[in-house]
Amino acid sequence: MTTKGFLPFILLLCSCDENIIVEEQYCSVEITEIPSLESEQEQLLYASPLSVVWDTLLRIDGTQAEIVGISRSGCSACDTCRIDNECTQCEECEPCAESCDTQCYEELRFITPLLSGDSATVRLINKYGQSDAYIVDVIQ
Questions:
Q1: Is the dihedral of CA 24, 28, 29, 32 positive or negative?
Q2: How confident is the model at residue 99, as a pLDDT?
Q3: What's the half-sphere exposure (Cβ side, CA atoms, 13 Å) at 106?
Q4: What is the per-residue pLDDT for 3?
Q5: pLDDT value at position 11?
Q6: What are the backbone angles phi and psi of residue 125, rounded to the nearest 5°?
Q7: For the whole model, what pTM was predicted?
Q8: In 10 A of CB 136, how many CB atoms?
Q9: What is the mean pLDDT of each run of 10 residues along the chain (140 residues)?
Q10: Are 14 and 30 in contact (CB under 8 A)?
Q11: Which of 91, 51, 85 lies closest to 70 in space, CA to CA?
């Protein structure tokens, strides 16, 4: 066999590395406040943890809602505390509970799709995980 014939085998052996560990964070996303919904209206909900628009999906009765924006206000002390105490985004961080629970507000602005019933099921999914399904009243 020529050197050229061994090249695929050499590349295959070199591409395997058993020491690579990929750590993922997967936790529950909690919707902390959501108003009654109105069809095709811009609305606001509060949830945690939130990430960024491009990796966030909000489903209302199975239809994807348009996400207008995500903002986090008053969260710098919470974020700094979590980093200093080596807490992940998904775990409860006791030393940071006060600053995170009382000063940090994470909100998501969205436009509801066309809704027809008296209630709708809402589910939020992002890089951290997904929320439970919430049943919310629909204003006609």
A1: negative
A2: 84
A3: 17
A4: 52
A5: 46
A6: -130, 135
A7: 0.75
A8: 18
A9: 52 49 64 94 94 94 96 92 89 88 93 95 94 94
A10: no
A11: 51
Beta bridge partners of 58: 124
Check residue 22 and give its pLDDT.
41
Structure tokens at 1: 């066999």
Distance CA 68, CA 43 (A): 9
Rounded to 10 degrees, what is the CA torsion of 110, 97, 84, 74?
40
**Six token digits for residue 116:** 């027809």
Residue 130 contacts residue 61 (beta carbons within 8 Å): no
If we measure between CA atoms, which residue out of 108, 106, 37, 40 comes closest to residue 69?
108
Burial class, 129, CB count within 10 angstroms (exposed 0-12 / middle 13-18 / buried 19+): middle
Query: Please, are residues 128 and 29 in contact by the beta-carbon 8 Å criterion?
Result: yes
At position 91, the amino acid (one-letter code) is E
